[in-house]
């Protein structure tokens, strides 16, 4: 009997020592997500969902902060939001930080470079070397505490998809107009496009970035003629005559109703709203790929050995209603791998 009591005492001591360790092992990982824009913005809406889906089955707690720099572009606003964000991060004590898009990555991720907390960016239009996130030639093995996902749209592939459909319908495209709004993100994209080999004999023409909806309508009306095509990147910050930002939907709907030329985009919501087609990338997919990297790191991988890269494939999306209205036929080889909307 004495031996039995002794065994119970030893077991009790073992459990009292091991219980704190077990408690520590089950503590949820704390994830802080900094979003450059606002919650209602289509690109931002499903980013947390993408990270959570990539980390499915893991015990995590997510805190999300929105810098709201799409609607507020002033320097004072950004400084206040960054200060607020950093204070909330300090109180939250994250195990890992995610930064979505350029503004959050430039303003937040760069402050933690070389520290102990892993930082994963995504939706980055600029080159990571520009923000000193990685040394030249070291994207495969960043070597620091920062890695991430580059936002690289399928510009050339989308253009050649449009060419293939036009060719199947005996439509010749001589001029391709690049159209976007007047934002920092769009400027980064235009810088990137300016260095790109489009691999086409068609003339690529970059229109001035648009801030005013009336100027947008006037300019697009002038290019609405046979032999032209439009490649539209962003239409998020066009303003009306009173200086108010217009939601993208009426802008896209005007484009749909007033342009007879082929119009392609890289955002599914624009195609759903009336543009013809495109190969798309989403905020969800960017965040999901970042979440995959985060999962590896939380499971023990070294941040410095997780490469900086971009997704290899996008999704072909075609607005079936718009295509039919224009009387276009889509090659069966394109349709087989496409998502048709609406």
Q: Which secondary structure elements does this structure contain, and how are they paired or packed?
A:
Layout: H1 2-25, E1 29-35, H2 47-54, E2 60-66, H3 75-92, E3 96-100, H4 101-107, E4 119-124, E5 146-150, H5 155-168, E6 175-179, H6 184-194, E7 203-206, H7 213-222, E8 228-232, H8 248-258, E9 263-265, H9 268-273, E10 277-280, H10 283-298, E11 315-319, H11 320-325, H12 332-335, E12 338-341
Parallel strand pairs: 1-2, 1-3, 3-4, 4-5, 6-7, 6-8, 8-9, 11-12
Antiparallel strand pairs: 10-11
Helix pairs in contact: 2-10, 7-8
Can you tell me about this structure?
This protein is α/β, with parallel strands linked by helices. The chain has twelve helices and twelve strands. The strands form three sheets. It has a five-stranded parallel sheet with strand order 2-1-3-4-5, with helices on both faces. Strands 7-6-8-9 form a four-stranded parallel sheet. Strands 10-11-12 form a three-stranded mixed sheet. α4 (101-107) links the parallel β3 (96-100) and β4. Residues 8-24 have low confidence and may be disordered.
> At the fourth CATH level, what is the homologous superfamily of the largest domain?
Response regulator
Approximate helicity band: 25-40%
- Number of H- or I-type helical stretches: 12
Count of distinct strands: 12
Query: Any idea of the CATH topology of the largest domain?
Result: Rossmann fold
What is the class of the largest domain in the CATH system?
Answer: Alpha Beta
Report the mean per-residue pLDDT as an integer: 91
Strand content: 15-25%
Structural class: alpha/beta
Give Rg in angstroms.
24 Å
Q: What's the domain count?
A: 2
Strands of the widest sheet, in order across it, are: 2-1-3-4-5
Give the CA-based shape: globular
CATH architecture of the largest domain: 3-Layer(aba) Sandwich
**CA distance, first residue to last residue:** 77 Å
* Unreliable segments of 5+ consecutive residues: 8-24
Topology order in helix (H) and strand (E) letters: HEHEHEHEEHEHEHEHEHEHEHHE
Q: Sheet with the most strands?
A: 5 strands, parallel
């Amino acid at each position: 009997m004495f031996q039995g009591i002794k065994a119970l005492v030893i077991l009790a001591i073992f459990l009292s020592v091991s219980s704190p360790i077990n408690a520590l092992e089950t503590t949820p990982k704390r994830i802080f997500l900094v979003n450059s824009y606002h919650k209602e913005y289509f690109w931002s809406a499903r980013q947390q969902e993408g990270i959570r889906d990539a980390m499915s089955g893991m015990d995590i707690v997510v805190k999300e902060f929105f810098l709201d720099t799409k609607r507020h572009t002033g320097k004072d606003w950004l400084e206040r939001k960054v200060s607020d964000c950093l204070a909330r991060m300090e109180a939250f004590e994250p195990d890992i930080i995610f930064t979505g898009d350029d503004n959050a990555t430039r303003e937040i991720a760069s402050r933690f470079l070389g520290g102990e907390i892993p930082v994963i960016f995504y939706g980055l239009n600029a080159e990571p070397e520009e923000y000193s996130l990685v040394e030249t030639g070291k994207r495969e093995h960043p070597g620091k505490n920062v890695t991430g996902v580059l936002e690289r749209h399928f510009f050339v592939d989308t253009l050649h998809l449009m060419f293939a459909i036009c060719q199947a319908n005996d439509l010749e495209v001589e001029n391709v107009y690049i159209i976007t709004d007047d934002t920092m993100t769009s400027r980064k994209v235009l810088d990137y496009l300016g260095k790109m080999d489009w691999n086409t004999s068609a003339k690529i023409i970059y229109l001035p970035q648009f801030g005013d909806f009336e100027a947008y309508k006037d300019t697009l009306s002038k290019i609405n003629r046979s032999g032209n095509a439009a490649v539209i990147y962003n239409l998020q910050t066009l303003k009306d005559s009173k200086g108010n930002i217009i939601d993208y939907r009426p802008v896209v709907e005007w484009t749909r109703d007033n342009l007879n030329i082929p119009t392609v985009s890289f955002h599914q919501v624009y195609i759903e709203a009336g543009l013809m087609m495109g190969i798309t990338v989403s905020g969800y997919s960017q965040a999901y790929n970042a979440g995959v990297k985060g999962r590896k790191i939380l499971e023990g991988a070294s941040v410095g050995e997780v490469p900086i890269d971009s997704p290899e494939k996008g999704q072909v999306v075609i607005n079936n209603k718009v295509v039919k209205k224009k009387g276009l036929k889509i090659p069966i080889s394109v349709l087989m791998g496409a998502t048709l909307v609406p």
